[in-house]
Amino acid sequence: MMRVLRILAILAIAGLSGVLAWNWYQTYQAPREPLPELVLEPLEGQAGFDLAEVEGAYLLNVWGSWCAPCRIEHPVLLALRAEGIPVYGINWRDEPEAANAFLAELGNPYAGIMQDPDGHAALALQISGAPETLVISRDGDILVRWPGPITADVLRNRIYPALEREARRG
Hints:
About 45% of the residues lie in helices and about 20% in strands. The chain is an alpha/beta fold. The protein is elongated. The chain starts with a helix and ends with a helix.
């Protein structure tokens, strides 16, 4: 019985070590991925953006008014904007009227919004669903990808650390 417990303890430690090593790799050693060139138009009635002109690190959030998880994460995006973290949006496979109604109802957290009605930009970004948020370095590299809504845990463990590392790069 003691032998089985020792083996289980060793396996648990090995598993935990593997998880921690993978997290360390993803956080500190994963190669940076360049942001592809995107051909987009501003969302009707909203300010657009040119990512080549954005200074510093920022978030790029892919969303749609039809997306229930986008509605859930929206207050987090508003809070990030209030903190001074630049958030840019790509409205994906949506009607401009529906997207603008969504923003009118919930508020606009975006410094600029482009639309991707046919999904070409999402395909170039390798986006498989909405919402998805990317942390982009000041050099235009994708530092972090987060598929799904941003939660407090995601902010604490993925988004803020990437932004802090980028700020320290100076």
